[in-house]
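As agreed, record passed on underneath.
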Amino acid sequence: MAYSWFKAFHIIGVVVWFAGLFYLVRLFIYHIEANQEPEPAKTILKNQYQIMEKRLYNIITTPGMLVTVACAIGLLVTVPDYLKQGWLHFKLGFVALLLVYHHYCSRLMKQLAEDRCKWTSKQMRAMNEAPTLLLVVIVMLAVFKNNLPTDLTVWVIFGLIILMAVTIQLYARKRRLDKEKELAQITQVPQEQA
């Protein structure tokens, strides 16, 4: 019975953790893009994003991570034989990368608050894809364990994930170009009137 409780809360923790990670980096993108706004909008937006980032990181993302890790330890205590299986070693390696990513987000949040972040919004969008890739690999390892399929279905699913990521990037690029075009038209109108 303890195994089922640990597993249920482990899954809940994973969902909460990833929801936080996905949205946190999205806020970083908006925070960076706020630098392009005129005053006072720039300051107002940056202050608001800073508050949202801190709350998201401290109230949702980090507690989700802690529940995930604590329940994973509980699962390993109840079924210690998992520690002898190769798939778990790979999964734990990817989870370690995710933990590094999580703590790096904290560092970026501090840099953004101090106006020291050197990342562009485009680079941050690419960074936002990392947890998605880690999630796919971790879930596949957890579900299939040592029998990870390598047939056509897997490659189709992998291709769809890549297509989704590319589509998101292209849409973001289109939005950015549309916004630049709109700003150029706005600045051109007052010059023509002068």
Notes: Residues 59 and 100 are 19 Å apart (CA to CA). DSSP finds six helices and no strands in the chain.
